[in-house]
Records
---
Amino acid sequence: MRNPFQYGGVVSGESFCNRTREAADLRRSVENAEKLFVYSERRLGKTSLIRKVLADLPTDEYLTVYIDLWPTDGETSFVLACAKAFSEAMSTSTDKLLNTARTFFSRLVPSISANDDGKAVITFGFDQKRPDIPLLEEVLAMPAKAAKKEGKHIVVVFDEFQQILEYESDAVERLLRSSIQHQSEVAYIFCGSRKHLIQQMFMDSQRPMYRSGAHYPLGLIAEDHWQTFVSGKFQETGKQISPEIISELCALTEGHPFYTQHLCHPLWELCETGGAATSEMIQQATSLLLDRESYAFMNLWDSLTRNARRLLKGVAAEPVGTQVFAAEFIRKYQLGSSSNAQRAVDLLLKKDIIDKQEEGIVIPDRFFRLWINSKQ
Ligand SMILES: Nc1ncnc2c1ncn2[C@@H]1O[C@H](COP(=O)(O)OP(=O)(O)OP(=O)(O)O)[C@@H](O)[C@H]1O
Ligand SMILES: [Mg+2]
């Protein structure tokens, strides 16, 4: 029987747990053609949620464009990624794809080829004879034009948006700001995972995207929802799991979607058909996963300064919300002074090993946290 727990890629349908309120919030934002920043720590389910919201929109009213900026590294690849995504979103046939691309992009030369599955894909080259037209402006103006031409609402999603901070100049950021301001009829979702970078982008008055949209931090999934989801999956496959065991599991993963699904996966394997999951099985499943990661964790650990390790030990062991600059913490974890603690926090934040959240400092990688605790 197939393991019902999935981790890694985008999840949908039966594998998608709750997020009803979040989906409704995003839907409303799209309907109002807002500009919204959606952010969270890594693997919290941003892409899955946004994909679901897009998929649930009525196709006769909405045109949806999803652009993953992860592979882009500058203005040129940004332009090409947008042009490709816009053309594909607007075209159902190969002919239409070429036509759309030619209509909207005067300086890009489209060509069609087949991918491994035989599906038509579009690629673009540049028309060197026409260097006068500013490409970036042209591409960014497309959603508004497309909205008019198709008589539909348009939603544009930029996933992994923090990637544009890696570009050589802030030209894309600046132009994006001015073009989205003039596109009152187009909904935009900017989605990213390096939380402090995304926050910095629209909370820092020096940056071009400053206050150019509302922001939506995505949170963990509450235990209640996992109770229904996890017990349902066990039951459907002829296995049992009690509410207490699910609680125990959620305490370890803190309800983080990726880690919860990841831990459920071996737990389900360990539980025999007709049997019930036990606390020992949770232990076994956890050590199995930590063993698998231990090489990477060890390398990461070795790359840190002594004070950073001490601070991490404390953060991993103490409840979330513990004050790391308090005298008590500094003494207990031998940090010496609050300025040492500050330096350690800065380093760990920069490396994305810890994250500052409303409730306090957390270690986003829930398995790394468990590994640190298992070492003491
Ligand atoms: N609503 C959900 N229900 C159940 N599992 C989920 C849900 N959302 C996310 N997950 C789990 O988390 C994993 C990562 O989801 P997803 O890729 O959508 O997150 P992300 O925030 O976009 O990640 P990244 O930071 O890598 O871009 C999924 O493979 C799945 O295991
Ligand atoms: Mg994602």
---
Amino acid sequence: MRVKFTNFPKEFKLLRKDLNKKFNKIGIEGQYVLGEELKKFEKNISKMLKVKHVVGVGNWTEGTVMVLKALGYKKNDEIITVSNSFIATCGAIAYLGLIPKLVDVGDNLNIDVSKIQKLISKKTKAIMPVHLSGIPADLDKLKKISKKNKLHLIEDAAHAFGTKFKKNYIGTLGDVGIFSLHPRKSFHVLGDGGLIITNNSKLYKKILLMRNHGLRNRDLSVIWGTNSRLDNLQAGFGNIMLKKIFLWNKKQLDIAKTYSKNLSNYVKKPIFDLNISNPTFHQYIIRTKYRNSLKKYLHNNKIETAIHYPIPIHKQLAYKKQFGNLSLPNTEKFSKEILSLPINPHMKKSEVNFVIRKVNEFFKIKKK
Ligand SMILES: Cc1ncc(COP(=O)(O)O)c(C=O)c1O
């Protein structure tokens, strides 16, 4: 048996008829940019996530750059975020000459809220938690800290479309949330894409202009902008994917529960509380000090795994100079222990059980 990490061909085949129909419809209409499908997509998301405003953009990274610019931050202003994330989390901040202030993570791999306060200075403008792998960061405490210090709360919701924290959807609890629609995300289109969601109408109006060169009409540009529009075609595909996402998120949660119940206790499993949230398990990340040999063992048994993320951002060559000797003990330790097991809504039960059997077998052999 071969267990793939993702299974795009299976997903495509499942939706092929609808996707082809949409492709033909958009082609015949000839609406490729800022068309009806995009409007429909934004409306659908707004209804689904119960948020006032949605803007479809080119990708998470461009979306976040626009958000930070629209919020009026200036060079050397500081944004508090984590190092245990994809490089883009800091890339978007650094792009505008802003300074990422990196906080360590707790055992659940999310921002350690107890370490935020001492990083706040006059230059701090926002906190940007990453809801890693679709498990929410502690939003109660994050909201409290941001309110007390008059900071914006910007949610890097790239992994967490459809996750709820208590009664509200991730991305709607802060001032603004940004999603990535990259194919590796649970909710995705057939290429790059991103979504900005907010209840702040002033911010919404600015972003709407910014994604299209600041143009109020065809000829008049009123503020700085760029080209970061979600393609009408991708939005059309997104409208089809949207019909499946809650079912697929639930399937992933079910797989995660099966993993958590049956995997050997020799591995540290994801920490989540179903009374507080419904994590969407964009990834299922375990921890073990035998990470590299387990990865190899699974590879030899034809099970694909991944590491999210093997090099913390403050240790990346691109940021080494900026962060110098910054020490984030958990982030650094975890980066050597974490392993993402295959999880996608198209996995068969037999594949999930095979992964469990092989992980447990590895530890049985290790014990001998
Ligand atoms: C946590 C996180 N933030 C941001 C991004 C960037 O998203 P995009 O590729 O849409 O710019 C990613 C993508 O992998 C991510 O995992």
---
Amino acid sequence: MSNTNEIRVWDPLIRVFHWTLALAVLVALITEDDLLWAHTWAGYTVLGLVAARWVWGFIGSEHARFSDFVRPPHETLAYLGDVAAFRARRYLGHNPAGGAMVVAMLLLLPLVALSGMAVYGYLEFSGPLAGLFNASPDSWSSVLKEIHELLADLLLVLVGLHLAGVAIASLQHRENLVRSLWTGRKSKHE
Ligand code: HEM
């Protein structure tokens, strides 16, 4: 049933993108050591989802567009100061700090997936990048693995900060942002 106090903020692509992405990252995380086929497919899924999201950031619905939520650094810092002082204003789309985090994750996620494809190509001679590493020196193996693990660890730090940001904004504005990203709707109140 539709609620007249609510408006549609997140389109279906954003909602499907987000929850499939979170699931794919979770699958990649829990299969990293034992289920290489699931780990690699989770990585390809992440890459496809993020590619679609980059395009949608330019042609998607109002709040899906980068122009709606990417703000200059001074505005983002001022917003964080307002959060610390409990006087941050409410945004219907992403707030400036959330927007910066979205861009950071959309840049880091493909790097994690691509570095994983490089490891897979080098160690298993499999995947789309296998051909690139035929003549690579042995020492690359540990370097590529280290890079992939470092980037994945950095992603986990960003996800942790992302979840903290969602929790803080939800508490400060007394709204359930997780529910909004599921239903696509937010309350109209200021
Ligand atoms: C690996 C896990 C996750 C990743 C990589 C991730 C990434 C993202 C990205 C890229 C967005 C921007 C959505 C868009 O504009 O397309 C976003 C938004 C959001 N995410 Fe996540 N997310 C993850 C897990 C979660 C989880 C577990 C929750 C909740 C429990 C969550 C809650 C949210 C919410 C509420 C928003 C919208 C924030 C707002 O209202 O501005 N995320 N996330």
---
Amino acid sequence: MQFFCFCTDCQTISGAAGYAVYGVPIASVELTKGQPCQFDKQADSGRINSRRFCDKCGTRLWAQLDELGLASINALTLDDKSLFWATQNHLPESAPSWCTLNRTLETLAPIPRE
Ligand SMILES: [Zn+2]
């Protein structure tokens, strides 16, 4: 699943209106080298959003919600950025008022709060 996330957490960490995400099961994430740093933050939903980032440059690599088994991969960290093609918006109501949303995309159903 490829989407733009407009949650306030993604805005804060990315410095952009939305965050380009590959949403995948955590079990499908395979680390081939290195060991990312980890920072756990309580999300607006009350769940723990566990961020993984590079200890050399600070780039956010992915975040994961362990209890849901989901990972949100930073789509623009991959070598071929042209492969990312969002089909959905997540939480578009949280987008800044100056942001021009692609309204042709479906709206991803919000993940229920705890
Ligand atoms: Zn988000």
